[in-house]
Amino acid sequence: MDMKQILLILSFVLLGLFSCTKEFDEINTNPNDPTRVEPDFLFTTSVFETMNLYGGNMNRVVFFNYTHHFSGFQGQFQRYNYDVNENNSYWQATYINSLQPVNQIIVNYQDDPAYRNRVLIARIWKDYILSNAVSIWGSIPTDAALAGTPSVAYTPEKDIYYFLLSDLKNLADSLQTTGDSYSAVSDKVYEGDLLKWKKFANTLRLRIAMRISNEVPNGDPVAARKAVEEIFQDEANLISSDEETASANWGTTSDTWSPLYDRAVYNYNANKATIPVTNESLVYHMAPYQDPRLQVYAQPAKQGPNEGKYFGQNISYGGGGDFAGDLVNPHTGLKQDDYSPIGARFLKPDAEYVFLSYAEACFLKAEAALKGWGGSPAEQYYNEGIDASFQQFGLTAGQAAAYRETPGIKWGTASDTTGRGSEFQDWLRICSSYVPAGDYFRQIIMQHWLAIPGQGVDAWALIRRTRVLEFQPQFATYEGNYAYLPNRILYPSTELQTNAAEVGQAIEWLGGPDDINTKLWFALPVIKNPHLPY
Question: What would the 3-class secondary structure string for 323-375 be?
């Protein structure tokens, strides 16, 4: 489907979206102009659909197994393969459901001073969505994709990042803390608080800068450092408390509740054999450190050989073949109900979806400070990030303080594996959460990853750009064939069919085939597991 066709059906799609969000927000249209939808309503629609995209089916099918927080059970994407129809739906949800409503705000209201701030916030939100899309596919259409032209040009991956860094700076600087704003009812993220939107734009800019901070050819540390140093000049304009975390909640009715609740709770019996559960990797990064957040992220197994314990599912569902040696496979013959369910917090109908948290802001600052790019000492930001994460998930300052003193968690210290090394490892003993003394970078990234469960698109980008956390490859068969974490998702078949020339150019920019294993520009190369032959 080309973009002209997409726009042709947009009006019908938006009408459907409006009916689906009636409980998520009140309808807000101009009674004197029925063909012109008010920006408040369009913005609500975009936020709701963005949550459903990154926190819904795409999260469960793709990101759960790509980020190792949870396990999404078996399927093409889950087995580090590819599903054409699923990918087409993700692309359509990105451009029609999520991007187009805010683009309509920009197109229709950008010349009206009465909507100045709301247009700026719509542009910030558009940049947020684009920052996710470019991390998933690579080079993508940007503004041209929303104009309805039959042949849509793609923008090179690098150029999108440079644009986002520049545009977010201008938007944050231009946003006034007085004047028009979205209503508290319509703005499900910040309830119309303009200062918080300014801080979100600056913190999103920090996330993007750190994403491209690797050395050439895997990023641009010069551009990243320039942006970070500018950001640190006014650190108060970053997200600086849990109350400023950018998040929204689903609703409590069938047309607004969380997709995970719908699948794993409301329709549990129909999906019992494939219910998503806690991932093994999450458990061995938390349990040996007595991390109290584990009781929030997961629930003890309710049956099976590990009843009453935190026991996560391996993404390979028992595969490992000859690499297991004499080890007894603890996953053999188990059902989904034999594993730790995902934490109750994430299974509520009106669960929260986090777009960018205070904890993440702290860990981004810690990483930048570790590079010597400004701010306070990296250790300070690191500790603040742990405290922020514990607060976000309802734990106490005392629990956070005790956790920060744990060997391997305490700044600069090594993990204490004496007499219990296997607790820090996956069941095959080829991956470990062990932290060596003085490995500050690994400490920061591990805590960053632990602070963002359920934020699949963010965690996948973090893993690919750092490559310091150890996760078992996907064993496709019990004989031992395996595949490492995918680097990207392929371009959708709909684009290959209707926009072949432009997609062909985008594939050339990849520097490799249109394949899940072709590395994106910002990411580091895959690191081979030393215990495996390839």
Answer: HHCCCCCCCCCCCHHHCCEECHHHHCCCCEEEEECHHHHHHHHHHHHHCCCCC
